[in-house]
Amino acid sequence: MAALELRHLGGDSYVIPGVVSLGLWGPVGGTVLFDAGGDESSGRALRRLLESTGRKLSWIACTHFHADHVGGCSYLKKATGCAVAIPEMERPFLEEPLYEPAFLWGASPFSALRNKFLMAPACKVDLGLSGSGLWEGTGLKVVHLGGHSPGMVGYVTPDQVAYVGDALFGQDMIERHGLLFVADVADWLVTLDYLENLEARWFVPCHSTPVEDPTSLVQATRRHLLDISDRVKTLCRTPSTRDDILGGLMEWLGKRMDPIRYVLNLGALSAHLTYLVERGEVEPLEDRGRLLWSSL
Ligand SMILES: [Zn+2]
């Protein structure tokens, strides 16, 4: 893996640009990393960066459990003795890697789902974070940013830099993905309203570059969620199975899927169906052993 670099944002707050951009904060003697990259090689590259800057790693503060964010935790914890924090409700996913593909597939996952994209190395969690508020003893503020994953959090440093995980996406990433992974559409919309009003000097999303004004990212992410829900509702005018709706959605987006993309997209579609059912816009109908989704 290529050498990582630190980009200064203000005070003791930095971003480490990459495929998944990570955050770093704190004095050299007690550094906090926000997320740890996708695998052991990310962990090794982060360790080299910490050593080259004379930093001692105290904590890895994870925004959420997805493997591309926590894959480096196990290596870094063993190599540096640091502690690991994650939202309490997502703790089991980091301690038992099989849960992520099992959660997406709904049963013991077949072999194409058992790889580093869905399974980070298991890592013991030292602290489960619950709710928003000050993280005592660190100076960091924890903010609940649920939606993309059930318990996702962001971290705001005393320098007013907000590390927001996967709560914000730019238009380029949205177009590349076609369908963003989402666990709870309604929660994500609440999170976007919250971020629109959050006072911070910098907003650092993991899949986009840091911005001082999050408005365009908030708007792009919100528009995507609402556009997809709208399209799902349209597809439900003809009562259809979940797989048929997904096929219609992929055709509309012009995207193909491998098994990993399929379970991620099926999960995202399920979140949109839940959103529409709870709003009274779609209903599930049993029909000869199939569950059809129909617009109301
Ligand atoms: Zn994610």
TrEMBL record:
Please indicate which superkingdom the organism of origin belongs to: Bacteria
Under SUPFAM superfamilies, the record lists: Metallo-hydrolase/oxidoreductase
Q: Which organism is it from?
A: Dethiosulfovibrio salsuginis
Instruction: Provide the coiled-coil residue spans.
Output: none
Q: Which residues form the signal peptide?
A: none
Entry's InterPro entries?
Metallo-B-lactamas, NDM-1-like, RibonucZ/Hydroxyglut_hydro
**Domain (Metallo-beta-lactamase) ranges:** 18-207
Q: CDD domains in the record, alphabetically?
A: metallo-hydrolase-like_MBL-fold
**Official protein name in the record:** Glyoxylase, beta-lactamase superfamily II
